[in-house]
Records
---
Amino acid sequence: MNENAVHDVLHKGVSTEKPEEAGRPFCNVYIMGKRYRVPAGFTLMKAMEYAGYQLIRGCGCRAGFCGACATVYRKAREQKLQFALACQKLVEDELYLVQIPFVPAEKALYDINKIRPEANTILSFYPEIARCVSCNTCTKSCAQDVKVMMYIQSALRGDIAKAAELSFDCIQCGMCAMRCPADIKHYHVAQLARRLRGKYLDKKSKNLQRRLEEISRGKFDAELNALMSMSLPELRRLYANRKIEAEKE
Ligand code: SF4
Ligand code: SF4
Ligand code: FES
């Protein structure tokens, strides 16, 4: 079933699917313990919507970038519980899945303006990183192929810049934290490393500073107000026709 047909089923209660499309195979999936038949080739997210679930939480970009859709699943006749982004993983026959709205991981409280990028700063907020047993489970469960264990080890050594660099592609989905035997909350550790690096270690951008001053002087107020008063179709048109600056050498 194509996306338009799914939309019609979901929102109008009718199918506009063409007869030749109706011949595609279907899978049995078990969503939150209930069996549904959904078209093969759908992502887990589309399968849930096809089955009638309205995703208010646990759904964002639909493109593997926001980390909102961590999902636990198990294949038939397998013991292993697996994790995936619902917007990326395709359904398989006899697959059991449950979607969690977020990972309720403890996050340290700090004021980035009052802490310093010392070797033990991250350890002082997240002492559990010292419990890492180097099993590499976190890396193997990462949706983004991030070297998760390596950035935790960098944080443990006090190498903030390296931990920030290695974790740059982390989308904070939490799948690593759900598997870690040492109960480390990797993505919070990584976020602190990137904040410390951005605030204290990296060279300041003069262009950014100049632009921030221009914004605070109100240079762009008129343009922003014009954007705020546009309709969604107007904004879409504007975005589609935007000029992309050439890369500077
Ligand atoms: S899963 Fe936990 S204990 Fe294992 S390597 Fe990763 S951080 Fe260390
Ligand atoms: S490091 Fe953890 S939280 Fe970040 S993308 Fe990988 S699995 Fe998700
Ligand atoms: S909805 Fe954003 S990663 Fe899946």
---
Amino acid sequence: MQFNNHLALCKGCGLCIAICPKKCLQYHQQNKGVYGQNAIDIDLNKCIQCRQCESICPDAAITISLKDQ
Ligand code: SF4
Ligand code: SF4
């Protein structure tokens, strides 16, 4: 699985963090999004690949590819 947070699109709204059932998303300490705010980071060890974060993101900033599981 590959998790991609497209920094040029992420506005740091936090919707993906809120919806993640495994609480594996958090604000990244260094990577900045479109407004200079902290973007999203993921703990892949906790992710169950439900793709809810991808679905809820209003800016299509998250894409998940399951091909590399
Ligand atoms: S829902 Fe999308 S825009 Fe909002 S913080 Fe998550 S990745 Fe960024
Ligand atoms: S795919 Fe599901 S478990 Fe993984 S980060 Fe997104 S919401 Fe969380």
